[in-house]
Specification:
194 residues, alpha/beta, binds 5-O-phosphono-beta-D-ribofuranosylamine
Length: 194
Amino acid sequence: MITLNGSKKIGIAVFISGKGSNFKSLYKFSKKKNSKFKINLVLSNNINAGGLKFARKRKIKNEIINYKNINLAENKILYILKKNNIQLICLAGFMRILSKKFLKKFKGSVLNIHPSLLPRYKGLNTHIKVIQNRDKYSGCTVHYVNSKLDSGKIILQKKVRVYKRDNPKSLAKRVLSQEHILYPKALNKILINT
Ligand code: GRF
């Protein structure tokens, strides 16, 4: 839990690598009166990430990080986070793993959204695995990030029904629409007003 000072919103950074639909939904929520956070920065390792265009259009500060050398990339990220007064990072489809060293150095919290009901199906291709195993339910999870992949403390989860007619694509679409609701909700849950 993170305590806020008075009515001030906490400054967050969203890390993306692709479409950035979760970033967009976080942004939309951040504009609401009851939001306890504001997006100060969007960061990507991918120059073509769809969310960057959205950020530029809305004049949200955005940075592209060259990940050829992880150590240099992470040091640069730490510098940028400090400069922009970032107290919390939301990973949203960020396809890089933050090192143990980075997590130790960054003094704020790091959150991630994962398209399964963790601890089931950590890592990639979750929807394919759910369909192959004929699970009745899948879903999404917002959790804290620690040094083990998709293993940090769970903040919120949402169950999604899997239908017989589902394929990985149709399931991904339904889960993603729930992710868009769950992520802002999880953030507001851990940010406590004083
Ligand atoms: C989401 O399914 C998220 O759970 C996973 O990557 C996907 C990102 O989608 N970590 P988007 O870029 O937010 O649209």
